[in-house]
C-alpha cells in the first residue's frame, strides 16, 4: 500500500507540472492563477534604496512575500513556466506606469538580469527572460517594448545566504555583455532584489560597453 501511495504521489507531481491544478500564487485548487493573486501582483512600482547602489533608480512591485514570493518560487524551482504570463503582466503594467510618470521615455528595452548557464538549464530556460517576453507582449499595444537578453553570469556561485559584501564580491567581474541591446531606454529587470549587487554589476558591465541604463525594475524586494 505504501508503494502504491508513493507511485500515485509521483504521478500527481508529474500531472501538477504538466497541467497545474492549483493557483501558483496561493494554492487555490482547480485554477492556475486566481483573480485575488492577479490583483495582489499589480501594485504600483515603488522606488527603493538598495544596499549596494547600482547608480540608477531601482523600482520594485512589492515585498518578497505572499503570492508574489510563491509565484516566483514556483516559476524558478517547480517548473511552473505558465506563471511567466501573470508575472509578465504585472511587469508590463509597471513599465507603463513608469512611462506615465515620466520616469521612462521612448521605446523601452528590457534587459533581463544575468543568469548562469547551469541555472538556466536546471530551470528549463531563463525565467526572467520569459517574464520579460510576456511583459513585452502585454505592453506592445501601448508601448513598443523589446527584450534583449544580452547579459550572462560567468563564474558566480550560489548567492543564497551571503551578506551584502559577500554578494558583491561573488558577482564582481562575473557579468558579461554578449552583445549590445538595440537603441532605446534600457531597463534592467530582475525577479528579486536582495542587496542590489547583481544590479550594480550589470549596470557597470553595460556602462563599460557604452550602454546607459535608465532604471532597474524588479518583481519583488527581499
> What sort of overall outline do the alpha carbons produce when their principal axes are compared?
globular
CA-based gyration radius: 18 Å
| Main sheet summary | 6 strands, mixed
Structural class: alpha/beta
What is the number of strand segments?
Answer: 8
Helical segment count: 8
> Would you identify the regions where 5 or more consecutive residues have pLDDT less than 50?
1-13
Order of helices and strands: HHEEHHEHHEEHEEHE
Distance linking N and C termini = 43 Å
Strand content: 15-25%
Provide the spatial order of strands within the biggest beta sheet. 1-2-8-7-3-4
What's the rounded overall pLDDT mean? 88
Provide a quick synopsis of the model.
It is built from eight helices and eight strands; from the N terminus they run H-H-E-E-H-H-E-H-H-E-E-H-E-E-H-E.
List keywords for this structure.
222 residues, alpha/beta, six-stranded mixed beta sheet, two-stranded antiparallel ribbon, 8 helices, 41% helix, globular, disordered N terminus
What does this structure look like?
The protein is built from 8 helices and 8 strands; from the N terminus they run ααββααβααββαββαβ. The protein is of the alpha/beta class and 222 residues long. It has a 6-stranded mixed β-sheet with strand order 1-2-8-7-3-4, sandwiched between helices. Strands 5-6 form a two-stranded antiparallel sheet. Helix 4 packs across helix 6.
Amino acid at each position: 500500500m505504501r508503494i502504491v501511495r508513493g507511485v500515485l504521489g509521483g504521478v500527481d507531481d508529474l500531472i501538477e507540472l504538466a497541467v497545474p491544478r492549483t493557483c501558483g500564487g496561493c494554492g487555490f485548487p482547480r485554477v492556475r492563477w486566481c483573480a485575488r493573486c492577479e490583483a495582489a501582483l499589480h501594485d504600483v512600482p515603488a522606488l527603493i534604496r538598495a544596499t549596494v547602489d547600482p547608480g540608477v533608480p531601482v523600482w520594485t512591485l512589492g515585498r518578497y512575500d505572499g503570492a508574489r514570493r510563491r509565484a516566483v518560487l514556483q516559476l524558478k524551482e517547480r517548473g511552473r513556466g505558465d506563471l511567466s504570463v501573470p508575472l509578465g503582466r504585472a511587469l508590463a503594467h509597471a513599465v507603463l506606469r513608469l512611462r506615465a510618470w515620466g520616469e521612462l521615455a521612448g521605446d523601452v528595452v528590457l534587459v533581463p538580469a544575468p543568469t548562469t548557464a547551469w541555472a538556466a538549464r536546471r530551470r528549463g530556460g531563463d525565467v526572467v527572460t520569459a517574464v520579460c517576453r510576456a511583459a513585452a507582449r502585454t505592453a506592445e499595444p501601448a508601448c513598443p517594448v523589446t527584450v534583449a537578453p544580452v547579459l550572462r553570469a560567468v563564474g558566480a556561485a550560489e548567492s543564497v545566504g551571503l551578506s551584502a559584501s559577500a554578494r558583491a564580491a561573488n558577482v564582481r567581474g562575473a557579468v558579461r555583455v554578449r552583445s549590445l541591446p538595440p537603441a532605446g531606454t534600457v531597463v534592467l529587470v530582475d525577479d528579486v532584489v536582495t542587496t542590489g549587487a547583481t544590479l550594480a554589476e550589470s549596470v557597470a558591465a553595460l556602462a563599460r560597453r557604452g550602454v546607459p541604463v535608465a532604471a532597474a525594475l524588479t518583481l519583488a524586494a527581499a
